[in-house]
Amino acid sequence: MKRLALTALALTLSGCADKTPDDTAVEDGPLALEPGAAGAMDSLGDRVAVDLAEAGTYWVVLMSQAPDQSTTFGYGSEASAARRVDPTSPLPAVERHDARPMLTPAVGDTRTFRVHNGSTAVTVTGEVIATSDQVVVWRDTTTANPLGDLDMTRVMEVVDAYGQIVLPRERAIFGEESDVDGGGTMDVLLSYTVNQTGAAAYVSGCDIGVGDCGTWGNGAEIMYMGIPEDDGHGSTNGIVETFAHEHNHLVYDFHKYALNGQEDLSENVYVTEGMSALAQDLTGYNNGNQYVWAAAIDMQAMYGYQSSTHGISINDVFRGSGRYDAERDGPLRGAAYLFLRYMFEQAGGMTVTDGGTPVDEGGIAWLHDWFSVPELGPDAVLATTGRSLEEVGLDAYTALLLTGRGLPTDPAHTFQPRFDDPLTGYAYGVDPFANIHGWLQLTGVPIQPLADADGALRAGGVEYLEVVLDAPGRIEIPVAAEAMAVGRVVRAE
Known about the structure:
Elements: E1 5-6, E2 38-40, E3 42-43, E4 47-52, E5 56-64, E6 71-74, E7 84-85, E8 98-99, E9 110-116, E10 121-131, E11 135-140, H1 152-173, E12 186-190, H2 192-197, E13 201-202, E14 222-225, H3 236-258, H4 269-282, H5 289-295, H6 300-303, H7 314-318, H8 329-346, E15 350-352, E16 358-360, H9 363-372, H10 377-385, H11 389-402, E17 435-436, E18 440-441, E19 447-449, E20 456-458, E21 462-469, E22 473-478, E23 485-491
Parallel strand pairs: 1-21, 11-12, 12-14, 19-21
Antiparallel strand pairs: 2-23, 3-4, 4-22, 5-21, 5-23, 6-7, 6-20, 8-9, 9-10, 10-11, 13-14, 15-16, 17-18
């Protein structure tokens, strides 16, 4: 791989620098950095630059602060190129669901549910087949089930883990779900209509009165679960992880929208998907979720250029109320999770006792703040951290670069070490160098030698660039002025 060697004289820059409190900076001379240390680059409108006091290998974290969505700007030799808008293919919105409440149901009781079968709305009858203090299980007796008899042992394994592990942890970490029917339990409807939608499970905010629902809404806290298949997919733990994800949507709808009296508002879908991915992690089921956040780090060898940091942006996951982006869905889900996980950890994170009880170290309090404040997206970042989305984004991007490299690093520029959950065995958190079940070995974020860089920077996105200085010198990178670029330089060696 070709590297760019620079030998320019070290000059003091006169531009005004964009610096965060953790950056190393000097007022009257070139910047001297130890390996692992980071410093601010000067933002000069159409370029970022820094003078460095020593030879060495440096990484540049080049970030756009432009508030656009799905816009790409040129940098380096492409700096003067016209900005390019990436085509997106929004997925169709999924219609929500409905019905009527019943209090304290017992085995054998029935009621109707209004559901969707992937093509149209239908009314089905549900019969109670199991109850516990936490969960009531209903079976759809209307829809034909071509998969045969229910494996009740497997169903109850899912329901037990949901009630005994996921629910207590979700409630402690994120907050209580609503109780619109007064029953004090979560309902699970087993129905082949869920299989027909292509989902393993889902929830609907319309069931608790959130969203533009019309006459939809079943008037209860309901998890809709598909019939488990015996094809190697949809393992018990996989379904429980899905339940953790979907349950968090219901808690978010209740706290963020219903309790704040803003039931008809909508947020960027990737904020809620990222938060539900965080719920998978923090309830101890950070398994399938690993493949999602890996796509936001680097899976481009398997799935293409977009499945890496090249395809992510703080804007596309926090700004506006946009729907799903079919081209970048995985990376954007992963990116939202990574940014939220970063803020959770910077607030202090949590620990877990040997018995599996979450203990707040500051991160749970931050989540409670996020769920309770009425602000959405970038405003919620500011309201709960006191920092702008752009400031948090630059630090999170830096943490993705430096985590796992064995360099002495500012705590603001790294993710916390992973540890295993005592109940599920899965590891909490993020490692850009993780080996995921022997199937995927991550090797960190993609770093491009500056001389070979692709010259494409997403609005709100990041590029990681490597520069080798053979002598003290200046790093200067032209960037389209519309990108509103900032840079951070890190001493690699």
